Amino acid sequence: MLIGVLALQGAFREHEYMIRACGDIETRQIRLPGQLEGIDGLIIPGGESTTMGKLMADYGFLDPIRERAGQGLPVFGTCAGLIMLARDINGSNQPRIGLMDMLVERNAFGRQVDSFEDDIEVPCLGAEPFRAVFIRAPYIMKVGAGVEVLAEYGGRIVAAREGRLLAAAFHPELTSDKRMHEYFLNIVKIAS
Ligand code: GLN
Description:
25% of the residues lie in helices and 32% in strands. By secondary structure, the protein is an alpha/beta fold. It is globular, with a radius of gyration of 15 Å. The protein binds glutamine. Glutamine binds at residues 46-49, 79-80, 83, 106-107, 135-136.
């Protein structure tokens, strides 16, 4: 199994470490659209979504990723990666992949609490709470009928899935808890 990690900007190395810690799985840093060839799943990391979206547009990533995802490639976006996956971003027309039927709000947790962590319930990962690290995190304001809500925090949706697309507002790659990545790898395994 080969997992691509978009490496234009942001926290891509941590995702690679995490995926490799999940077992005998190869990772590839994706810096050019041609490198999407042959991957079984793609991770879009956290970072700064306006910068990442601009780079993705400039490097010609948006259509190839939409096309591959349309053919069934599983994609997992965390934080800025979640924003890249969202069809609608409140008050913004910044470039995005836009494949998940949801409306997101950027920097949703306010300035005083730029970064924080807390235990959250993620039922699809089991009964044990998940330590969620939020860094200038977005949240999901609204989801369409085909989107499954995986986690909420303080009444706000912070993780969701639509078919083979998975999105988390927090940073599972910055913890030692592998369950969220394992959940994604399971989607990849079933898809391939
Ligand atoms: N606030 C960032 C954005 O809107 C996301 C932050 C992150 O990925 N940690 O792009």
